[in-house]
Amino acid sequence: MHATSFIELGLRPEILRAVTEAGYTTPTPIQAQAIPEILAGHDIMGGAQTGTGKTAGFGLPILQKLAPYANSSPSPARHHVRALILAPTRELAIQVEEQIKEYGRHTNLRSTCVFGGVDIRQQLPIVRGGVEILVATPGRLLDHVEQKSIHLGQVEIFVLDEADRMLDMGFIPDIKRIMALLPAKRQNLLFSATFSNEIKRLADELLNAPRLIEVARRNTAAETVSQSAYKVPQDAKRVLLEHLVRSRNVWQVLCFVRTKHGASRLARQLEKDGLATSAIHGDKTQAARLEALAKFKEGKLQVLVATDVAARGLDIDDLPLVVNYELPHVPEDYIHRIGRTGRAGATGEAVSLVAPEEERYLAEIEKLLKKKIAIQMTDGFDATAAAQAVRERPARGTSEARGGRSERSPRSATRQTAAGGRSDGKEPRDVRGEREGLPKVRREPAMNGDTRRAEREAAYAKNPDQPIVRPPHASAEKHPHAHIHAARRVKPVPALLQKRKVPQTEDA
Questions:
Q1: pLDDT-derived band of residue 117, with 50, 70 and 90 as boundaries?
Q2: Which of 89-93, 248-252, 378-382 is least confident?
Q3: What's the CA gap between 416 and 387, in Å, rounded?
Q4: Which residue from 294, 288, 334 is spatially nearest to 314, judged by alpha carbons?
Q5: pLDDT at residue number 410
Q6: Which residue of 13, 15, 289, 465 has the fewest C-beta atoms within 10 A of its own C-beta?
Q7: Can 7-214 and 225-392 be said to share one CATH topology?
Q8: Are 470 and 449 spatial neighbours (Cβ–Cβ below 8 Å)?
Q9: Which CATH class is domain 7-214?
Q10: Where are the alpha helices (H) located in 307-397, listed in sequence order?
Q11: What local confidence, expressed as pLDDT, does residue 344 receive?
Q12: Range 225-392 classified under CATH 3.40.50.300
């Protein structure tokens, strides 16, 4: 018989007070099963989908066990790390630490979160000041260990959250390095949404006679999430996505893509089409990711485009719709994605846009789920026509994309030809202006070197006795021999005149 209230779990008054202030009255199944086992000192291997309340499932008993030893002393030596929680991503680490801080607000326990993507110097004063509960990502934790700002020799409880994601992201070697730094005698808690053979091998190394707690069938999606799919060509997906969002008038749509570049590109296109959109992925700074997530939670963004890694651990209340814009190559990632909606017993919807080349991924997902995903038809939307329209859309920079305007600029389009006319067959500007009653303006032809030379040779042919004097250089007045330069005569070369065939006049 599992507890039906937090009071039945035997939590301390200050923790119960914080839980009540947070609006929780009844523990979720994972909380009702895990909390008593953790308080009894057992190692735990917990299998639960995201959104089932597993953070409180291990956070509340950790606070319960450490609270009697909490003190208000300012000395760092009185606040050593006693509970270590590892999370795979920055977002999940921040989320876990926020909940720990919320549940422990009426205790003297200190907690903090360390993660990469920010200057480590910002975190040093906090960790050196002493904390009892530390939430960290593996890489940044090892950075602190190397700088001797964090010591793990007195850790009593070690939590490995989202172990399957740790495996996917290649963190297992780092985790084993961290495990080697921990005391041999400690309590270990491992939580994972899925259990693969690799996770079982890790559990064998980490856990000691663990209690297995599963609140959902292994490798299954949350039952409160309705799942459907639309078969659509790849180049018509964006049009269909816009159609779904606008026709349903839905706000807060979390859209998953496979790559960072694809996330940025789709977000730009949706924003250009009038949907308030932003993207989060690994190349975004931590500040930019947190800002986009905050706007999404506040309802200032209609669509948030994310990659799997960036969206890991996102906790958004009442998220109505998750869209798999691109199906994941790993079927388990599909479960993690749609687990962003339908959290804590609420209902949600997951829609997948499946291109012909992705149908094999859909088949693998259905095999994992052991059920078929319903294929839907969209009324009023022609996928074939939408794809054709996208393919026929003029490329950016062409005259068609600019509404039929010429490639040349307006100024170049009105230039006159060497003969005084226009290249496009229209009247010259000066003639048109004269017809409209404006003053007649004609530009004099530009003088170049050949023109000046021809004029000098023509002048000599007309009067050979007149010397041709080269005009002085602009700096001749400052030259010490300026009078020589000014008086220098240039004699014509008859052969040059003959070659250029300068016409001879009667005076010659």
A1: confident
A2: 378-382
A3: 44
A4: 294
A5: 42
A6: 465
A7: yes
A8: no
A9: alpha beta
A10: 308-311, 331-338, 359-369, 383-392
A11: 57
A12: yes
